[in-house]
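User: My advisor asked me to double-check a structure prediction for GerMN domain-containing protein before group meeting. I don't want to rely on an old file, so could you generate it fresh from this sequence?
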Amino acid sequence: MKKAVLALLAFSLILSSCVHKSPFETEYYFQALGEDNELVITADAVKLKESYPSFSSDAVISRADRINLALTSEEEGMVGLSDYSLSGALEGNYGTILVNTAISMLDGFEKEKEGDLKYYTNGEFSLYVPKTGILLFTDSDYASFYDRTIENRKIMIPFETASNLASSMFSIFIRNPRTMLSLGFDIPLATLMEVDTLIASINERDGSFTLDATFLMKSERSANTLTNLLRTMLVTNIRKSGGALDFDLLSNMLYKEGSAVIVSGMNIERATVDSITQNAMNMIGGVM
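Assistant: Sure, here is a fresh prediction for GerMN domain-containing protein from the sequence you gave:
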């Protein structure tokens, strides 16, 4: 059934000759995401498709300018993407009539109406194009997600932070985490609970990926703990790979400023990025 949704959505998009844009022009849609322990992933779909050309062959993803995911989990510690509940939005060339008509034709999907709010659901997934240019989807409560991110949206991520996140291929934001996605290093739960906010971005250049991240910790003491932990992990990984230790480079790559721990230009294995990216796309396909 999920593949049928994608097929019909793809068919409707291929037929469409109109070009639509996200309704969010003066702010970012994903600024309304980011409640406590909600993992926000936002991706510049154009840059993502340059690094992963296969996504351009997907008629749904190919119309996206930006991909936004809001992931929540009852688990604690480091978990995989499959352990998260998923909500999100695709922004781009999505027309209300064609896409919503395609969804309405699916077996098992029924139209729900709550006041003026409309959407389609099969009891497990819900999706709809509430406004031209944005496709909203969730495996949770659609009405609640629509209300807090569109109808009565409250800005959770400041504009300056959001602009920095949006400038990268894809970025991660989480506040007061109890659950964390692995970015190539695992953080013990006790240390994870001391993170106030994590802002991280991944970019690709000439086939290599780099990570820039800022961990805003709840105290300088916890910042010291995390700095020492990450430094040990970096040194261990360098030695395992047979690389030479350059402590000047290491000190510029990982350092502390007050209660903030900064990671700058750290190489991240392509396998890690591939796993995150492909699993995220699979999750979107799972909803649709």
